[in-house]
C-alpha cells in the first residue's frame, strides 16, 4: 500500500510517500520551510537523490497545493492519505478515518492548537478534493499520551473547569513513540522493559517520559504551549501573568495568547525563532541570543531530571527533532550537569553524529549508566504504519463479554510462601478461577503499609517467579503508599510493602494498581477485531439503570488458552455501579462490550 503522509507544522510542511507493502520503502520525502513573501525553501529526497531549491510558495497553503504536481511529475501513485493531527483531545486513540463528523470534532479543538490544527485541516480538505475516492485517516499527536495517569494530566483547578475539559494532553506523540521504539532497537531490549526520556527539540519542543512502553508524562499540556522554550512559543509561564499583563499593559486574553504562541520563545528572547540563527548571533556576542540558549538548555535539563525522578530512574535519553539532531552544542549544554544520575556524555562522539540510513548513534561515554542516543524522528513513517494497519484491520462487530471484578489479592513467589507460611509449605488450592490453571488459595495474608493494614487478603495461585500485590487506588491510600497503575508483571520501580503470614513477615516490592484489561484468546480477538497490546474503549453496564460507563484505554491481552473476560478493580466497579460482594478475586460478573480503536 502506498500511503501519502502530510505533516503540517506551525512553520513548515513535511510530506512523504511510503510503500508499506515493500519493506516500508520511502518513495519520496519533501519539505517546505522558512516561508516568506519571496517564497520558501524546498527539499526533496527520492530515487533521483536530494534536491534543495528555492520555491515560489509563500504560505503553507500554497505549499500543500503544490504536492500533487510533485507526485505526478515523478509518476507516483497514492492508495491512501494519512494526516498528522496535533490535537485529538481525549477521544481519538488510533488512526481514524476523516469523515465530516471527525473533521468537525478536530475543528472544535482548533483553539487548543491554533498553530497546528488549522494548518493540517487545510491539507485534509485539499487532499479530499484531489483524491476524493481514497481513504484519508488522521493520526493524532495526543493519542500516545492517553496512557498518562490522572496525576500527570490533572490540573489543580476548580472541578467545574476540569469538567469543562481543562486537563493536560501532551503532543509530539507520534515522534516520541517512534523515538522510544528506535532507542529500544539500539539497546537491544523490548521497549516495554525500558525507561526512556525522549527529547524532541525543534521549532516545537517537548520532553516525554516513556515508562515501560507507555507514555507516562509529557512537558506539553492542554495545548502545545506548555513546557519547553520553543521557536515562537513561551513554554511554561506563571498563569498569574495574564492578570498582570492585563492590568499593566491593557492586553486582553486574545492578545496575550497570540503573543505567547507567536512572539515568544526564542523569538521573544533573541528576536529570531530559528535556533541556527540564535546560535550564530550568540557566537558573535549577542547577549540576548546567549541568554536564549541558556534558558532553552536549562528548561530541557530540568525536565529530564524531573522525569528521571518520576520514573524512578532512566535507561536512555534520546535526542530528536531539528535541534536535537543537528546541534551538538545544545545536546552538550543539556547533558552537562546530569552526571549525578549516571549520564556522562562523550564529547567527541557528540560532535561526530551522522544520521544517514536511520542511524541512531550512541554518544555517552564508556561507563555511563544512562545511554544517550541521537536519531532522526520518523513521524511520517509511523503515521504511514498506523494508517496501513488501520486499513488492514478486518471489519468486526463488538461482542458482549463478562466483567470480573478483582478485589485486592497477591501472587506469591516460592520465597514469599516459605517466609509467610514456613519452609516447604505449599499453598492449598481452593476455588478455581476462569483463567485456566489459576485458583484462589485457602490461605490469606495481611498487607501492612506505613498508614494501615489490609487484613485477610486473598492469595491467587499458582506461584510466580516474582511476588506481585494488586490493590485498588483506595486501598493504596489506606496503606499510605502511592501504588502505580501497571500491567501485570511490570514491577520495575514499584513500591515496597510488608506481607504478614502465620510464620513471619516478608518485605517486597511489586505493589501495583492493576491496569484494567481484557483477557482473550486468538479466536475471540479476531472476531472482535482486537489485537494484543492495544487499548480499546469498553462500555460496561445497563443503560436502563442509568449507571452505564465507558472505560477508556483498556489493555487487550491475547493468549492461546485465555478465557475471554474483562478485569477491573473494586474502585472501577463502584464507578460503574457494579455490586461487589465477597473477598475473592472475582467478586461478581457483568457484561461489557469492547469497541475497537477509532
Proper CATH architecture of the largest domain = 2-Layer Sandwich
Strand content: 25-35%
- Quickly count the domains: 3
Task: Look at the structure and give the mean pLDDT.
Answer: 91
Terminal Cα separation, in Å?
20 Å
Gyration radius from CA atoms, angstroms = 26 Å
The backbone outline, from C-alpha atoms, is globular
Please, could you describe this protein's structure?
With 598 residues, this protein is an alpha/beta fold. Helices cover 30% and strands 28% of the residues. The protein folds into three domains: 1-140, ATPase, nucleotide binding domain (Nucleotidyltransferase, domain 5), CATH 3.30.420; 165-392, Nucleotidyltransferase, domain 5; 394-598, no CATH class. It contains 19 helices and 28 strands. Strands 15, 16, 17, 18, 19, 20, 21, 22 and 23 form a nine-stranded mixed β-sheet that branches. Strand 10 (205-211) and strand 11 form a beta hairpin. The longest helix has 25 residues, at 287-311. It is globular, with a radius of gyration of 26 Å. The model is unreliable at 581-589 (pLDDT under 50).
Give a summary of the structure in a few sentences.
The chain is α/β, with parallel strands linked by helices and 598 residues long. It contains 19 helices and 28 strands. Strands 15, 16, 17, 18, 19, 20, 21, 22 and 23 form a 9-stranded mixed beta sheet that branches. An 8-stranded mixed beta sheet has the order 5-4-3-2-1-6-8-7, sandwiched between helices.
Amino acid at each position: 500500500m502506498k500511503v501519502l503522509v502530510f505533516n503540517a507544522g506551525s512553520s513548515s510542511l513535511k510530506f512523504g510517500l511510503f510503500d508499506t507493502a515493500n519493506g516500508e520503502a520511502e518513495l519520496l520525502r519533501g519539505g517546505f520551510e522558512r516561508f516568506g513573501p519571496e517564497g520558501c525553501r524546498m527539499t526533496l529526497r527520492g530515487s533521483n537523490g536530494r534536491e534543495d531549491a528555492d520555491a515560489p510558495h509563500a504560505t503553507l497553503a500554497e505549499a500543500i497545493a503544490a504536492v500533487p504536481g510533485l507526485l505526478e511529475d515523478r509518476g507516483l501513485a497514492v492508495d491512501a492519505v494519512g494526516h498528522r493531527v496535533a490535537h485529538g483531545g481525549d477521544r481519538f486513540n488510533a488512526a481514524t478515518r476523516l469523515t465530516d463528523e471527525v473533521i468537525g470534532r478536530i475543528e472544535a479543538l482548533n483553539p487548543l492548537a491554533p498553530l497546528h490544527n488549522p494548518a493540517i485541516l487545510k491539507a485534509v480538505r485539499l487532499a479530499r478534493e484531489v483524491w476524493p475516492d481514497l481513504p484519508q485517516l488522521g493520526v493524532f499527536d495526543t493519542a500516545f499520551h492517553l496512557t498518562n495517569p490522572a496525576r500527570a494530566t490533572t490540573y489543580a483547578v476548580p472541578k467545574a473547569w476540569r469538567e469543562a475539559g481543562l486537563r493536560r494532553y501532551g503532543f509530539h506523540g507520534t515522534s516520541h513513540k517512534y523515538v522510544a521504539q528506535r532507542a529500544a532497537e539500539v539497546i537491544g531490549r523490548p521497549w516495554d522493559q525500558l525507561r526512556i526520556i525522549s527529547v524532541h527539540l525543534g521549532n516545537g519542543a517537548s520532553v516525554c517520559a516513556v515508562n515501560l512502553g507507555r507514555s507516562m508524562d509529557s512537558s506539553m499540556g492542554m495545548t502545545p504551549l506548555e513546557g519547553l522554550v520553543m521557536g515562537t512559543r513561551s513554554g511554561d509561564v506563571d498563569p498569574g501573568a495574564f492578570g498582570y499583563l492585563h492590568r499593566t499593559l491593557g492586553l486582553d486574553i486574545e492578545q496575550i495568547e497570540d503573543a505567547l504562541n507567536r512572539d515568544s520563545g526564542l523569538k521573544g528572547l533573541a528576536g529570531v525563532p530559528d535556533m541556527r540563527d540564535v546560535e550564530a548571533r550568540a557566537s558573535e556576542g549577542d547577549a540576548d541570543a546567549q541568554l536564549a540558549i541558556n534558558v532553552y538548555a536549562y528548561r530541557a535539563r530540568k525536565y529530564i531530571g524531573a522525569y528521571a525522578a518520576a520514573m524512578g530512574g532512566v535507561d536512555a535519553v534520546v535526542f530528536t527533532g531539528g535541534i536535537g539532531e543537528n546541534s551538538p552544542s545544545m545536546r552538550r549544554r543539556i547533558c552537562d550537569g546530569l552526571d549525578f544520575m549516571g549520564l556522562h556524555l562523550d564529547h567527541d562522539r557528540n560532535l561526530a553524529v551522522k544520521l544517514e540510513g536511520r542511524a541512531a548513534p550512541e554518544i555517552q561515554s564508556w561507563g555511563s549508566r544512562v545511554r544517550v542516543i541521537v536519531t532522526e524522528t520518523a513521524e511520517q513513517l509511523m503515521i504511514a504504519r498506523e494508517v496501513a494497519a488501520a486499513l488492514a484491520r478486518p471489519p468486526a462487530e463488538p461482542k458482549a463479554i463478562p466483567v470480573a471484578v478483582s478485589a485486592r489479592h497477591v501472587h506469591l513467589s516460592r520465597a514469599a510462601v516459605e517466609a509467610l507460611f514456613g519452609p516447604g509449605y505449599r499453598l492449598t488450592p481452593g476455588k478455581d478461577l476462569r483463567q485456566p490453571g489459576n485458583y484462589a488459595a485457602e490461605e490469606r495474608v495481611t498487607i501492612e503499609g506505613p498508614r494501615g493494614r489490609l487484613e485477610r487478603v486473598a492469595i491467587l495461585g499458582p506461584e510466580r517467579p516474582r511476588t506481585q500485590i494488586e490493590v485498588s487506588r483506595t486501598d493504596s491510600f489506606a496503606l499510605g503508599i502511592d501504588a502505580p497503575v501497571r500491567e501485570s508483571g511490570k514491577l520495575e520501580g514499584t513500591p515496597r510493602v510488608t506481607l504478614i503470614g502465620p510464620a513471619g513477615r516478608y518485605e517486597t516490592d511489586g505493589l501495583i494498581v492493576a491496569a484494567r484489561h481484557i483477557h482473550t484468546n486468538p479466536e475471540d480477538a479476531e472476531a472482535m477485531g482486537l489485537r494484543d497490546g492495544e487499548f480499546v474503549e469498553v462500555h460496561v453496564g445497563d443503560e436502563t439503570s442509568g449507571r452505564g460507563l465507558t472505560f477508556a484505554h483498556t489493555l487487550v491481552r491475547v493468549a492461546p488458552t485465555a478465557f475471554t473476560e474483562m478485569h477491573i478493580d473494586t474502585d472501577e466497579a463502584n464507578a460503574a455501579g457494579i455490586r461487589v460482594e465477597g473477598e475473592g478475586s472475582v467478586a461478581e460478573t457483568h457484561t461489557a462490550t469492547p469497541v475497537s480503536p477509532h
